[in-house]
């Protein structure tokens, strides 16, 4: 039965992406060459931006999510809330918090400790109860 199937494939016309070799069909990897160059390497290079430096400094280019909107303007640092400047601050790890006295921890550090300690206990309980 397989032999009759292979013989029937010899007379079938396949699209460009499919090649027929001795009755067996194979697929071309990558979908073939791209138009306008050899291998498409020249078109893969990043293109230089045509936006001036003044516009880049005064607007947040690419932050617009609306069809009819414009890119938002960059404001002065005083116009942004204080919490924004502390988002990327490093938080203490669980081992650092365990070394400190719990009575001397700030509220933020204490909530961080409770969260990290709870997460560690859950992981430990899961690893104990896991089937090996």
Class inferred from helices and paired strands: mainly alpha
Low-pLDDT stretches are 17-22
Number of contiguous helices: 5
Percentage of residues assigned to helices: 25-40%
* Radius of gyration using CA atoms only: 31 Å
Distance, first to last CA: 46 Å
Question: What about the largest sheet?
Answer: 2 strands, antiparallel
Q: Provide the residue-averaged pLDDT.
A: 75
Anisotropy-based shape: flat
| Cross-sheet strand order for the largest sheet | 1-2
Task: Kindly state the number of beta strands.
Answer: 2
Q: β content, as a range? A: 5-15%
N-to-C SSE string, H for helix and E for strand: HEEHHHH
Q: Can you give keywords for this protein?
A:
132 residues, mainly alpha, 2 strands, flat, Large ribosomal subunit protein mL54, ribonucleoprotein, mitochondrion
